[in-house]
């Protein structure tokens, strides 16, 4: 490109206006023929640029509450009870851990929960009564703890029959209360359940909503033990085709030896707030919502159900774990920015909050009541730090947001030649949410 004389003069004037001292960068007259033309030569002073792991916390203080020192035993889910007991699960997707659901009994040790015998199914044992692969752990509003079991062990893509389930336990006695086993007609059809949330005010005893990474949402009526798979194989729960994300500045792929493929994880994060279910496919940057009552209506056709889904928008990062507080705020793990973001769902919460997200409430509702429409939701930063190395799952309890970090893209599945590049310890953090409690 050839600059005109006037443009060249303007460019020189602009450069002089910047007033960059000539001593800031000193180069040789011209790099040698063997040097890269893009590499400064003979710098008199040079400061190593910051790595992705050097930037400081932006947002509330992060407190490390637990550390894990087993490289192949990385955490995904976390749940915290009213006594601040920390429950963590360790999936068996890649290795056969001794513990797949545990209770932190010190800063860096974990014991089996609810007991050691349930952690592994023995030969001939009914797999509906023991753990195969716990992917998520959740405490509901009735103070029951739930384990979500994918039913698929290391190296397995499909759940074993009767293996995919959610199991509830009494937090005081540690005894199992109930279990809900996915029918094999659902679990054998490529289902990989990932996370679960509960609305105990629906139906007779409540409804469980589950995300399925292979592309669906599963609804369980807790009273009748009925199971429905909805939105199966639709675009709203599917990964983007040929999706490429970024983690710590590096493109994010799946690997099998030297064979590279694209991450294909579908619906993953899930939260319930103000009557809506908010969800997102992981291998995308898309965010959606659907009314919970509509989603639980088994009489609707697939077309009617799909038409009820509302697209909130692109959010600038793939999304991991979700949670919601009792102020109507939904929090999301946004690892592409080493951060956790949030958005308001309640107009009253927005108008009374000091953490405004830019929504003009008068444009959505003339009163101080109601739910912010999908078209007016705005995602905003909550906390950002280089220490947030893949915020996989999170929960709200006792005025804090608690979350796990597991460096998932550095695990062998996502590295050339299947070599894990994660570094210990894996961590569980908490950070203040200003006294808010969990969504109910």
Strand tally: 28
Distance between the terminal alpha carbons, to the nearest Å?
61 Å
* Overall residue-averaged pLDDT value: 86
Largest sheet: 4 strands, antiparallel
Strand line-up across the major sheet: 1-28-27-26
Low-confidence stretches: 1-52, 353-368
Main location: secreted
Family: Belongs to the major royal jelly protein family.
Organism: Letharia columbiana
GO cellular component, one term: extracellular region
Would you kindly provide a written description of the structure presented here, covering whatever features stand out?
It is a single chain. With 440 residues, the protein is mostly beta strands. Helices cover 8% and strands 33% of the residues. It is built from five helices and 28 strands. It has helices at residues 5-18, 184-187, 292-295, 302-308, 347-352, and strands at residues 63-68, 78-80, 86-89, 101-104, 110-112, 134-139, 144-149, 165-170, 176-181, 193-199, 207-212, 216-221, 226-230, 245-247, 250-252, 254-256, 259-261, 267-273, 276-281, 286-291, 310-314, 322-324, 329-334, 339-344, 380-384, 391-397, 400-405, 426-432. Strands 1-28-27-26 form a four-stranded antiparallel β-sheet, with no helix packed on it. Strands 2-3-4-5 form a four-stranded antiparallel β-sheet, with no helix packed on it. The protein starts with a helix and ends in an 8-residue tail after the last strand. Mean pLDDT is 86; it is low at 1-52 and 353-368. Keywords: Secreted, Signal.
